[in-house]
Design goal:
The protein has about 120 residues and is an alpha+beta fold. It contains four helices and four strands, in the order H-H-E-H-E-H-E-E. The radius of gyration is 16 Å and the shape is globular. The termini are far apart.
Length: about 120
């Protein structure tokens, strides 16, 4: 990551554990975390250097519906904080839960549509 200052690293890790809801899990090894928690660690790792864009390919692919909703909610919140999020998924139900721009690829064409809060009611 290019980080050398241990104090700054600790501060950033603590921030990311808080953002991802893993404040109490910082001491755990990956195999000691649930699938959803492991995905949250992946999100935290992607955020460490404050990127402008995160590309998430099937971030909910191996998760139960509740964990999936939590991960997409987290990504949605991160986008509100200023990081652009591009999610590739086949999970249409999850797409409908979060407003935003959707690009649907079908038969070689890219179709853009908006999912707004109003269209979800």
């Amino acid at each position: 990551t290019g980080w050398k200052d241990k104090t700054k690293m600790k501060i950033r890790v603590d921030e990311l554990l808080h953002i991802t809801g893993l404040e109490t899990k910082g001491h755990k090894m990956p195999h000691q975390l649930s699938g959803g928690e492991q995905q949250r660690v992946g999100v935290a790792r992607a955020l460490i250097n404050q990127p402008e864009l995160i590309i998430a390919d099937e971030p909910t692919g191996n998760l139960d519906p509740e964990s999936s909703e939590g991960i997409l909610g987290l990504l949605n919140e991160i986008s509100r904080l200023g990081t652009s999020i591009l999610v590739a998924t086949h999970n249409y139900r999850m797409i409908s839960l979060f407003p935003g721009t959707v690009y649907h690829l079908s038969q070689g064409k890219c179709i853009r549509s908006e999912i707004s809060d109003a269209s979800l009611e």
